[in-house]
Amino acid sequence: MDALPGRNNGVADELLQYSRSGDDVKITESVFDSHETIFFEGDPSDRVYEIVDGVVMLYKLLPDGRRQVVEILGAGDIFGMASSDLYDTSAETLAPATIRHTVRRQAEQSEGWQQHMYTKLLHQLEDMHEHAVLLGRKSAFERVSTFLMKFVIDRGGVGCVGPKLDAPDESLVTLKMTRQEIADYLGLTIETVSRVLSTMKKRGLIVMPKQDRILIKNVCGMCHMTGMHE
Amino acid sequence: MDALPGRNNGVADELLQYSRSGDDVKITESVFDSHETIFFEGDPSDRVYEIVDGVVMLYKLLPDGRRQVVEILGAGDIFGMASSDLYDTSAETLAPATIRHTVRRQAEQSEGWQQHMYTKLLHQLEDMHEHAVLLGRKSAFERVSTFLMKFVIDRGGVGCVGPKLDAPDESLVTLKMTRQEIADYLGLTIETVSRVLSTMKKRGLIVMPKQDRILIKNVCGMCHMTGMHE
DNA sequence: CGATCATTTGACACCGGTCAAGTTTTGTGG
DNA sequence: CCACAAAACTTGACCGGTGTCAAATGATCG
User: Fold this and answer.
1) Mean pLDDT, residues A155-160 taken together
2) From the list A63, A83, A118, which residue is nearest B117 (CB)?
3) By CB distance 3.0 to 4.6 Å, which of A9, B67, B128, B223 could disulfide with A128?
């Protein structure tokens, strides 16, 4: 999966910028492989993280093992803030990632940082609102369509320009999530995700040259299957 | 529905406290009846609101009318912040409410306000994570149980003390939402909510002296049906 | 090339949605 | 306070979309 389009995939300099107000603030940059755990739900929330590059998912587990992926974050996004002294989710990379971290207490003492967080958290909250609609009210087909559209840049949003006329309206999406992770994000089972993709293939809506490459043949058509248009 | 337990139901003085940094900041306090709309999704997001008293829901609609209630807010909670210049949800009172508002641009210019928002938004985000688990992974029975437990103060949380032994572990909940609103919050239909409550009644888990009064006969037992314990 | 894991596909069950009555509650006017 | 209408809620019958379980197929990596 490529970094999510839409906002701040630029240089990740927020921690650097805002943590300097203290005296000996240490910023550490680490490289993670794909599917490495950064922290677990319930761990002491003593660090905040910023994604320089890569993809990270936040998820929660129920005691019987059911999992819900609650957020998918990309370059420029920040995570690890917590309202208690424990993380409320686990964090795991979905793709190789470069991630900076610093001490949460220090970051939070910086006024500028908290102001920056205001913007970041608002975005995250609005994304969660949208995702709640998906989880609570959309069919399996609509969920997968919405998911695929997330990775099509500059399309499907409020200011969607629509397809260029008399040109194929295609877009190639490269997934960096397994079917299980997609299912856990969309509130479905792995089998349902697979079946929906197969149906889309059968109907000529997508082509799948590899399991993790999906060519959307008609972006505008796909967009109208998300339940969000018309 | 009573104000949600758990955090900041005290005096709502945040707007007052933090908006004073500008010179002629105007704070307006209004009284709303039950089921009055405060703003609609897509309206210009020029005000921020603080609940002094009452209950407010935020919801989103799909074009075909499907509705998802994404947040339920009580005294001390703040809403109307937006990352764009349009509200991403509609806001409507669930109970008679006293609500303060001020100009968003003015509030956001206040450093202290943004810092305060950091804490507020973190809480809201964590609530949304929890709600995503409910919407994505819980059965109808678990959803309704979880919903009812929201209104039982000091129980079911991480530090749950459990029931007092040799005493009935009861709790009376007064709902301020219609079945339709509960359904739209839990991602169910009105009929399913009704059926689950009837089943709980049949099993002696609850007593319903009125449609909006639910006496939980065994809080600890109810808590174990939320899917969150063992 | 074989072992292992991920994905797809099939058969079937069942939870929760849909549609359609009933029933209870609420609100209004006399 | 009652009569009536309207709204909210409950209940039943039925069905369809997803989940479950199992097997087959395809991908990946020594």
Assistant:
1) 66
2) A118
3) B128
**pTM listed for this prediction:** 0.90
- What distance in Å separates the CA atoms of residue A207 and residue A213, rounded to the nearest whole number? 8
Using alpha carbons, list the distances in angstroms from residue A85 to A42, A43, A88, A121, B156.
Answer: 9, 8, 9, 18, 19
Q: CA-to-C1' distance for A193 and C7, Å?
A: 10
Q: Do residue A66 and residue B228 have CB atoms under 8 angstroms apart? A: no
Tell me whether residues B129 and A88 touch, CB distance under 8 A. Answer: yes
Q: Which nucleotides of C are covered by protein (CB under 7 A)?
A: 6-11, 15-20, 25-26
Just give the CATH number of B140-223.
Answer: 1.10.10.10
In CATH terms, the fold of domain A14-137 is: Jelly Rolls (2.60.120)
> Of B83, B136, B187, which is closest to A126 when you measure between CB atoms?
B83
Q: What is the pLDDT of residues A88-98, one digit of tens each?
A: 999 999 999 99
CA of A172 to C1' of C10 (A): 30
What is the rounded end-to-end Cα distance, in angstroms, of chain B?
A: 28
The structural domains of chain B, with segments of one domain joined by +, span 14-137, 140-223
From the CA of A45, how many Å to the C1' of D14? 51
How long, in residues, is chain B? 230
Percent of chain B with pLDDT strictly greater than 90: 75
